[in-house]
Write a structure and sequence with these properties.
The chain has 367 residues and is α/β, with parallel strands linked by helices. The chain has 15 helices and 9 strands. The chain has a 7-stranded mixed β-sheet with strand order 2-9-8-7-3-4-5, with helices on both faces. A two-stranded antiparallel ribbon has the order 1-6. Strand 3 (214-218), helix 11 and strand 4 (243-248) form a beta-alpha-beta unit. The two termini are 37 Å apart.
Length: 367
């Protein structure tokens, strides 16, 4: 991972960053709140992270790369629960007050200290293999839609359907372990439009008339999410003549795809001519974002990503962690798109929507 000194601010954030950017969408507390007393919102979010402990513990127990995994998984569960209890008693402990970035970071820290580097590796590999085998069918289905606007809507529905594969959500982890998920069924079963934030028609009108020269896409989960959701969409951008930069995590976190994994996935998706089902990929770049969490603070990205993104005119943040929980209101110097499915009741409540509702937020920068 890059050292702190090598991390820089994402160059397309509106400046001055200090007064324009905060890497958390939902305020857990206000200046008037007692700093030594946890707020109701902090308590609700601490409980949400506590509810995820059993599914993380289960994954950790079966991590064959770690000696004494079951005993260490037990230690993880106990230690992380204690940290969460401390934060309830004193929100200023453990580097608080807590927000979703700190709660994720503390969980990763405990896992890593116990030697757990990638507890979701097995399920990621299985889901990637499954999704790779379906990629051609999904692309052909999209290509068979003649009308550009309809095809775009189908691609967007594919992103939402893929985004369901999220093992950081306790409810979805349970559904997934029970019966897996069918990508095409998920496409059909999205909540009906209008979604809780629904700028799809505005974006569609631009898509038909406008083409962007370079798009940066912050990707989210492995499996169907990146392979059947994001890749067909990125391929369509390439067809439109847009250069595409896919930004993936540096280190494993939950079932998010990492930079090395994404490089491998894309090499498997390309045919012998290096094309993505007939589409030239010389304009497709993969970048290491420098991030190691399922959420992202855009004041801290790798220099490599900052360099590649500096002349982009479209930024896309995909997934609940990056697109909704941390950057829904992030303002950029260029057009931006936040796309994600609402998978926590607390987020649904904040947005005034339904659980498994969809967010499609498009901001155009004129001039």
């Amino acid at each position: 991972m890059e050292s702190d000194s090598e991390m820089v601010a994402f160059p397309l954030l509106t400046t001055p960053i200090e007064s324009n950017y905060r890497a958390c969408t939902i305020p857990y507390r206000f200046p008037s709140d007692n700093p030594r007393k946890a707020t109701p919102t902090e308590i609700a979010w601490i409980d949400l992270f506590r509810n995820s402990i059993p599914s993380f513990k289960k994954r950790a127990e079966s991590d064959t790369t770690v000696a004494d995994a079951p005993a260490k998984a037990e230690k993880f569960a106990k230690r992380y629960a204690e940290i969460l209890d401390d934060l309830k008693k004193d929100p200023e402990s453990h580097g608080g007050p807590p927000d979703c970035i700190l709660l994720c970071r503390l969980r990763e820290q405990v896992l890593r200290e116990l030697g757990f580097r990638d507890i979701f590796k097995k399920v990621k590999d299985e889901e990637n293999a499954k999704a790779i085998s379906l990629f051609l069918d999904v692309v052909r289905l999209n290509d068979s839609i003649e009308e550009g606007g309809k095809r775009l809507e189908n691609l967007v529905r594919g992103i939402f359907a893929g985004n369901i594969f999220d093992l950081g959500s306790a409810q979805l982890a349970e559904v997934f372990s029970r019966d897996g998920m069918s990508f095409l069924a998920s496409c059909q079963n999205l909540v009906p439009r209008p979604w809780v934030i629904d700028d799809l028609d505005t974006f569609k009108a631009k898509w038909i008339k406008k083409s962007w020269k370079k798009a940066v896409i912050f990707v989210d989960n492995s499996g169907a999410d990146v392979i059947l959701g994001i890749m067909p969409f990125a391929r369509e951008l390439l067809r439109h003549g847009t250069q595409v930069v896919l930004a993936a995590n540096d280190l494993p976190s939950i079932n998010d795809v990492t930079y090395p994994e994404l490089v491998e996935i894309i090499s498997k998706l390309k045919d012998e001519d290096g094309k993505l089902v007939g589409v030239d990929t010389s304009n497709l770049l993969i970048a290491n974002s420098g991030n190691d969490l399922p959420v992202i603070d855009l004041t801290r990205v790798s220099q490599e990503l900052a360099y590649l993104a500096s002349d982009a005119d479209l930024v896309i943040l995909e997934g609940m962690g990056r697109g909704i929980e941390t950057n829904l209101y992030a303002q950029f110097k260029c057009d931006s798109l936040k796309i994600g499915m609402v998978k926590h009741p607390e987020v649904a409540q904040f947005l005034g929507g339904r659980l498994y509702d969809c967010v499609f937020k498009y901001n155009e920068v004129l001039g």
